[in-house]
Amino acid sequence: MTLPADTRRLVLVGFMGSGKSTVGPLLAARLGWEFVDVDATVETEDAASVAEIFRTKGEAYFREAEARVAARVLERDRVVVGSGGGWGASAGRLRALPRGTIAVWLRVSPEEAVRRVSGMRGVRPLLEGRDPLEEARRLLRQRESEYAAASVGVDTAGRTPEDVVEEILDAVRDNNPESVGGRNVRKA
Ligand code: S3P
After folding, report:
1. What is the model's pLDDT at position 180?
2. Per-residue confidence of the chain (188 residues) as pLDDT tens digits?
3. Is the distance from the beta carbon of residue 124 to the nearest atom of ligand 1 less than 6 Å?
4. Contacts for 65 with CB less than 8 Å, ≥ 6 apart
5. Which of 15, 126, 139, 142 has the most ligand 1 atoms within 8 A of CB, as the residue to mutate?
6. How far is the CA of 5 from the centre of ligand 1 (A)?
7. Percentages helix, strand, coil for the chain, rounded to the nearest 5?
8. For ligand 1, is residue 14 a contact (CB within 6 Å)?
9. Exposure string for 20-57, b = 16+ CB within 10 A, e = fewer
10. Which residue among 23, 41, 46, 50 has the greatest number of ligand 1 atoms within 8 angstroms of its CB, and so is best to mutate?
């Protein structure tokens, strides 16, 4: 599998339930690269789940840990990085990625996101309130313009993870400005 020569890593961004952790390992396998999940790494290093970290140390602590781990992972080459849904939504973050990094936005509607995560209570503290759908809509509205700074955007609704992988690879290979959500392929 060949990508543009200066591509060193892909980072998957997008809302909770967009499929980052499902698509990421498949994409990495197709490339013969490694997959690293940022939130799973935070959980290992803190010896606590994301939900526990939110509860015991607060969201601000989690956001710092997440940013620190992601920055470290984004120094590696030949890696597909799965980020948490809030990471790629942080203001300006996708416009300031290290060289050779392509951000890929996995798009999902709030309805589909809530449907996908609804079987997993106790995992996503931000969608555990009284009205998860309303909260998902609010958060997505707030975050969309940041996610849209990704170089590549792929719709995930009604598609298998394998289809999503092929579409990502096509879009990254072509680096076709028509199919992308922004102009953020930082050349090495
Ligand atoms: C969050 C998304 C979660 C996790 C945390 C906060 C968010 O990751 O980082 O619960 O702010 O969207 P996933 O996108 O992998 O669910």
Report:
1. 40
2. 678 788 999 999 999 999 999 999 999 999 999 999 999 999 999 999 999 999 999 999 999 999 999 999 999 999 999 999 999 999 999 999 999 999 999 999 999 999 998 877 777 889 988 899 999 999 999 999 999 999 999 999 999 999 999 999 999 987 644 444 444 444 44
3. yes
4. 42, 45, 46, 53
5. 126
6. 31
7. 50, 15, 35
8. no
9. bbbbbbbbbeebebbbbbbbbbbbeebebbbbebbeee
10. 50
Q: Which atom of ligand 1 is nearest to the CA of 39?
A: 9
Q: How far is the CA of 54 from the centre of ligand 1 (A)?
A: 11
Atom of ligand 1 nearest to the CA of 14: 14
pTM score, two decimals?
0.91
pLDDT at 1: 65
Rounded-to-integer distance, Cα 17 and Cα 118, Å: 9
The encoded tokens of residue 101 equal 């990094």
Q: How far is CA 53 from the centre of its chain?
A: 20
**What kind and span of H or E run contains 150?**
none
Within 8 A by CB and 6+ apart from 35, the residues are: 24, 25, 27, 28, 29, 79, 80, 81, 82
